[in-house]
Each structure stands twice: as C-alpha cells, then as structure tokens.
Amino acid sequence: MLSELAAIVGASHVATDPDITAAHARDWTGRFVGTADVVVSPGTDEEVAAVAAACAAARTPMVPQGGNTSLVAGAVPEAGQVVVDLRRLQRLEVDPVARVAVAGAGVTIGALHRAAAEHGLRYAVDLASRDTATVGGTIATNAGGLRVVRHGMTRAQLLGIGAVLADGSRVEHRPGFVRDNTGYHLPSLLAGSEGTLALVTSAQLRLIPLMAGRVVALQGFPSIEAAVVAGTAAAADGRVEAVELMLRPGVELVCTVTGLAPPPAAAAYLLTESSSPDGLPDDALVALDPADVTRLWSYRERHAEAIATLGPTHKLDVTLPQPMLAEFLTAVPGVVAAAYPDAGVWLYGHVGDGNVHVNVTGVDSGDEELSDLVLRAVVDRRGTISSEHGVGRAKARWLHLVRSPAELALFHRIKAAFDPDGLLNPGVLSA
Ligand SMILES: Cc1cc2nc3c(=O)[nH]c(=O)nc-3n(C[C@H](O)[C@H](O)[C@H](O)COP(=O)(O)OP(=O)(O)OC[C@H]3O[C@@H](n4cnc5c(N)ncnc54)[C@H](O)[C@@H]3O)c2cc1C
Question: Which residue range forms the structural domain that includes residue 118?
Fold first, then answer.
C-alpha cells in the first residue's frame, strides 16, 4: 500500500514519520487526539483519484484533511486509516468579468481573498481561521463565519465543484453561473458533507465586489439582553455585514493574553461592520482606517486563541432562535456550573443570526456529559446543536436530537450511494 501510494504521489508526499504525522492526528483544540499512521498528499486531481482507488482496492478508510482547523474532530484519524491531505491542490484563477474564482481544495480562504482583491473583488465567506482553513475544508463543513448575516454560508457561494468519490471516480459539475437548474445540485450536497461523501478537489466560487469602505463599531451594553436586542436590530439592516457579540470576561481575557488595550467596561459588547458610518451610536468606538479596523476586530477574532491558552477547550457552537438567545446566554453558565463548579464558560458568537459559541475550559477533555448538558439545553429551547462547525465525530452522538429518524435513514442511503463501502471519514456524522 505504501509503495503504491508513493508511486502515485512521489515518496516525499507519503509521510509515516510520527514527527510529521503527529500534527495530522490531533484537532485544533487539542481535545481530540487520534492516530495518523500514513499521511498522503496528492498534488493533482488525477493523483487524488488514484490515491482513492488504491485505498478502495485495499479497503482502507480515508480521512480527508485540509487546514485541520475543524473544531468538531472532523478530520481526526484512527489507526488503520489514511489521512488524505489536500493542501497541495493550489490551482487559483479569478475571472473578474464573470466574478468567479476557480480554486483548488488546498487554497486557503486568506489566499482566495487576496487573489480576488487584486480584481476589486472578495469572497463572501470570511472566518478567523482564514490563513489555515482551506476551500475544500470550508466546503466540506459548509463554513459560516463573520458575514453570514449578509451573504449566507459557504453553500450559497458554490457555483460548481470537482470531486473524487471513494472508489476513485471523478465527478465534476462546473456551470460557472447561478442559473443552472439541471437536477440534483452536487455542490450543495457536498457542502456540509464533512468528507463523508467525496474528496472535494476544486470549486467554482461566486465573488462579490470589495466593500466601498469598512466601518467597524464596538459598542458596550449594560446587559446581555440589551446587546442581543441591539444585535437583532442591526442584523435586520441590509447594509450590515457582521454582528458579533462578546461578553466582558472574554474581552478581559483577550486583553490579558494579547496586550490589547481594554475597551470601556461593559457587561456585553457588539461589534458591527458595515460599509457606511450612517446610524452609528455616539458611544461606540469606531474604526475607519485598516489598522483600526484590524484592531477592533482583534477583540473578537482573538477569543479562540486566548481561550486556548487555558488548555483544551470544550467547544459547542450552537444556534438559538432569536427570542431565546438572551435567555440562553444568561442561563448557560449556571447550567454548566451546576455540574462543573470549577469550569470556565466563555460565550461569544455571530449573534446576528443566532449563533453562540459556548467554550468551556477546566473540564476533562474526554467528558461527554458536558456536551450532553449544553446540547440538550439548546434543543430544549428549539435551537440546533451545530451552527457552523459541523457535526464531526464530536457531536455525532447528538445528531438524532435535531434530525428525525426518517432524515437519518435518508442520510444513510445517500452515504451508501456515494460510498457503499463506508471508506470516507467513518465515524463522522454518524455515531
Ligand atoms: C480560530 C478559528 C476560528 C474559526 N472560525 C470559524 C467560523 O467563524 N466559522 C466556521 O464555520 N468555522 C470556523 N472555524 C472552524 C474551521 O476553521 C472550519 O470548520 C473550516 O471550514 C475547516 O477548514 P479546514 O480546511 O481546516 O478543514 P479540516 O479541519 O481539515 O477538515 C474539516 C472537515 O472537512 C473535511 N475535509 C477537509 N478537506 C476536505 C476536502 N478537500 N474534501 C472533502 N472533505 C474535506 C474533513 O474530513 C473534516 O471533516 C474556526 C476555527 C478556528 C481554529
């Protein structure tokens, strides 16, 4: 098997040395650690197909991996599985007239933004992991990020896709335009499939014009409820690009870890971005030039990094219906403290569309009861157990709380149609 893989991709692109494979065996949070016996890095679509065919012939399960920034253990391999690292797929072309990018699966979201910006364009999906997360990984997870409130999630940006199935066959559909009504929409189906249906090799992505200007405002509120009410109103304004909520303990932690100057004290903060300064409240900190924009965004974007300094983090990203948001945010620290009095609970999120990132530190990283407590508190309030990070291995046990038996049976039939031998990412999306 190893020599066959080496013959396909070249010996230097097959890794078995633990010094190299270790980084592919664990997730970004450090909470989930698996075993990466072999990491293979194909450099072309043809090589991906040949790798898949070789693994299929040997009945060896494959774990597709991009930037490995998954927060739900979506790309953590087990012994006997081959990690297929797709980062060498670096094709990147921008058609400024059609406003379409064709990007290889390994292109990072940051690189895509930079290439689009050369033509006065941008990609509508943006997230703090932009310089590591890949086009393939963000499609596989249907990543959301900072601008969903205005532009939708990754699925809404997909015009076409190139993919390799578990048996090594290639499937491509690249119309290059939105108006294409020719049956099942493969890009939509692969968006959010978390590497269980196919290896994404490339995509056609819709691009949009760069913002005319960027106006970022940071505003403090005396209560969570007041911030949520203001965030909901901001989200309804069609010009607003991002509406992010932070709470005082999280902002204080970010300032301690990063050395950023603390903003005026408040119980909760809203960070909003739009292209116009119209309608900004008098008491907001406002950034108009690029350095200040980056600085204000740092309060929000550096939360994950700051929390990670406290040890492996239990991350639960969820969505609540807007009327339940403030109540959930207020209640969840108590829900956790009742069972884990020493835990730290850090809450923030893309609140404009109901997203909350619940981060818990100081808890045994293997403890699943914590997930059970929080996810059931979400479902009790008619929310969903995954807002944007996906289900991965971390939440597979709880999928039945939000998807009916009939839906899950259909999931299995779709999986069987794409991957009848169950070779792609076993354990992900299915407990
Ligand atoms: C600091 C930080 C901030 C983040 N912010 C956000 C955010 O705002 N919004 C958000 O949605 N997520 C966020 N994430 C989570 C993460 O960045 C996303 O889930 C991202 O889409 C993962 O991309 P990746 O390339 O790292 O994929 P990986 O982590 O490598 O893989 C993710 C999943 O996709 C599969 N996969 C990867 N590549 C392919 C491929 N080519 N074909 C088929 N399957 C594949 C894997 O098997 C796995 O199931 C954040 C993560 C970090 C660390």
Answer: 92-209
Is residue 424 in contact with ligand 1, taking CB distance under 6 Å? no
CATH of the domain at 259: 3.30.70.2190
Q: How many CB atoms lie within 10 A of CB 246?
A: 25
Looking from the CA of residue 424, the nearest atom of ligand 1 is 47
Cα-to-centroid distance, 74 and ligand 1 (Å): 8
The total number of residues shown for the chain amounts to 431
Q: What is the pLDDT of residues 287-336, one digit of tens each?
A: 999 999 999 999 999 999 999 999 989 999 999 999 999 999 999 999 99
Number of domains in the chain: 4
pLDDT 10s digits, 323-344: 999 999 999 999 999 999 999 9
> 345: which residues sit within 8 A by CB, 6+ positions away?
332, 333, 336, 337, 358, 359, 360
Whichever domain contains 29, its CATH number is 3.30.43.10
pTM attached to this predicted model: 0.96
70 pocket-lining for ligand 1 (C-beta < 6 Å): yes
Q: What residues pair up with 15 in beta bridges, in sequence order?
A: 39
29 close to ligand 1 (CB < 6 Angstrom): no
CA 108 to ligand 1: nearest atom: 25
Domain annotation covers residue 301: yes
Residues 65, 99, single domain; the answer is no
Ligand 1 atom closest to the CA of 388, numbered from 1: 11
CATH number for 329: 3.30.70.2740
Do 44 and 78 lie in one domain? The reply is yes
**Distance, CA of 133 to CA of 206 (rounded, Å):** 18
Backbone angles phi, psi at 49, to 5 degrees: -60, -45
CB 148 within 8 A of CB 242: no
- How far does the centroid of ligand 1 lie from the alpha carbon of residue 264, in Å? 34
